[in-house]
TrEMBL record:
Domain Pyrroline-5-carboxylate reductase dimerisation: 56-158
GO terms for MF: pyrroline-5-carboxylate reductase activity
Family annotation (InterPro entries): 6-PGluconate_DH-like_C_sf (IPR008927), P5CR-like_CS (IPR053790), P5CR_dimer (IPR029036)
PANTHER family: PYRROLINE-5-CARBOXYLATE REDUCTASE (PTHR11645), PYRROLINE-5-CARBOXYLATE REDUCTASE 3 (PTHR11645:SF0)
UniProt name for this protein: pyrroline-5-carboxylate reductase
Upper taxonomic lineage: Eukaryota, Metazoa, Chordata, Craniata, Vertebrata
Family: Belongs to the pyrroline-5-carboxylate reductase family.
GO biological process: L-proline biosynthetic process
Species, as recorded: Atlantisia rogersi
Group of enzyme by EC: oxidoreductase
């Protein structure tokens, strides 16, 4: 609103893994920006990882999902590794395996296009280790807690955008 009407504005929100060219960036165009500017920005940012044009209203949601979500993943990875350490595995090895597990799971989601619930189900065998472990995660309300985290981070991003 403070810029001249003809100003071309593209608002973007990256996340930390852009540093290693595996990030997620979303951007939205202002009314003065056209297809050429959007294509140029997407071309420049694609080397940082996934780059998607979205409606302006998705920018704060992306912050709660992916900007802050990186920290949620680190917390989960830390918990996975600490569980293995508790069971007797050395910490460095446990951390590397946890990271590779997350990387492999993410790669399967991206490359297969399958819904995470379907891929999760593919890992479970009747009466096996995974279904027992998933039951424990559900008792701890992991899914609801993560959904709530995305919600509060999105709301905080909205509040900060108003300031």
């Amino acid at each position: 609103q403070l810029l001249p009407a003809w100003t071309k504005v593209l608002r973007l929100m990256p996340n930390l893994p852009c540093v290693v060219q595996a990030g997620a960036i979303v951007f939205a165009r202002g009314s003065g920006a056209g297809d050429e500017e959007a294509a140029l920005l997407k071309s420049m940012l694609s080397s940082c990882g996934l780059c998607e044009e979205v409606p302006e209203s998705y920018i704060n949601i992306h912050t709660g999902l992916s900007g802050s979500g990186v920290a949620y993943v680190y917390l989960f990875a830390e918990a996975l590794a600490e569980g293995a350490v508790k069971m007797g595995m050395p910490g460095g090895l446990a951390s590397r395996i946890a990271a590779q597990t997350l990387l492999g799971a993410a790669k399967m989601m991206l490359e297969t296009g399958e819904h995470p619930a379907k891929l999760r189900g593919d890992v479970c065998t009747p009466g096996g280790t995974t279904i027992h472990a998933l039951h424990e995660l559900e008792k701890g309300a992991l899914r609801a807690t993560v959904m709530n985290a995305v919600e509060v981070a999105t709301k905080r991003a909205c509040d900060m955008a108003e300031d």
